[in-house]
Amino acid sequence: SLAVLQALEDGLKKADADPSVKAVMICGENGKFSAGADIRGFSSPKRRGVGLAPIVSLIESSEKPVVAAIEGVALGGGLEVALGCHYRVAHVKAWMGLPEVTIGLLPGAEGTQRLPRLIGVPAALDMITTGKHIPATEALKLGLVDEIVEENTIEAAIRLANKV
């Protein structure tokens, strides 16, 4: 939603400007990282506000480490947000993917560029063209996530942020 995008932008800019902040951790709410955009908004009249691609670029360009704490799902734009982070920690039961292709859309926030850089072209092409969701264990093998945990993902992401 526009509110979430605006909150991400405001939070990142505030963290980058605050010398006491050493790292940033991005998480979802209620055990889910993000299922991506609400497609009902695609048929709405264009609203002013920040887009997802600039937010993902803002995350990626942060001089402070940004760690994603992925629980539940990171799908579509949610995965693209995680791809912009410098590190990703996922719960063992988390799933990731770019399912928008199944309704005729291509990932729109540069996921088609970031995913191949991270996991290689063959694996990325499979995910991008099929909309396939992968479990955290496969994401770790591919290099999509840096760590998987069975415990509290947010605490694990904070530990990683403090370490880096």
Task: Write the topology of this structure.
Blueprint lengths: L1 H16 L6 E4 L24 H10 L4 E5 L2 E3 L1 H8 L2 E5 L3 E3 L13 H9 L1 H10 L2 E3 H7 L4 E3 L3 H11 L1
Parallel strand pairs: 1-2, 2-4, 3-5, 4-7
Antiparallel strand pairs: 5-6
Family: In the C-terminal section; belongs to the 3-hydroxyacyl-CoA dehydrogenase family.
InterPro entries: ClpP/crotonase-like_dom_sf, Enoyl-CoA_hyd/isom_CS, Enoyl-CoA_hydra/iso
GO molecular function: (3S)-3-hydroxyacyl-CoA dehydrogenase (NAD+) activity; delta(3)-delta(2)-enoyl-CoA isomerase activity; enoyl-CoA hydratase activity
Name of the CATH class: Alpha Beta
| Fourth-level CATH superfamily | 2-enoyl-CoA Hydratase, Chain A, domain 1
Number of domains: 1
Strand order of the largest sheet: 1-2-4-7
Largest sheet: 4 strands, parallel
Question: What would you say this structure looks like, in words?
Answer:
This protein has a single domain, classed as Alpha-Beta Complex (2-enoyl-CoA Hydratase, Chain A, domain 1), CATH 3.90.226. Helices cover 43% and strands 16% of the residues. It contains seven helices and seven strands. α1 packs parallel to α2, α2 (52-61) packs parallel to α3 and α4 (111-119) packs antiparallel against α5 (121-130). The radius of gyration is 15 Å and the shape is globular. It starts with a helix and ends with a helix. The mean pLDDT is 92. It comes from Drymodes brunneopygia. In the C-terminal section; belongs to the 3-hydroxyacyl-CoA dehydrogenase family. It catalyses: (3Z)-hexenoyl-CoA = (2E)-hexenoyl-CoA; (3S)-hydroxyhexanoyl-CoA = (2E)-hexenoyl-CoA + H2O; (3E)-decenoyl-CoA = (2E)-decenoyl-CoA; a (3S)-3-hydroxyacyl-CoA + NAD(+) = a 3-oxoacyl-CoA + NADH + H(+). InterPro entries: ClpP/crotonase-like_dom_sf, Enoyl-CoA_hyd/isom_CS, Enoyl-CoA_hydra/iso.
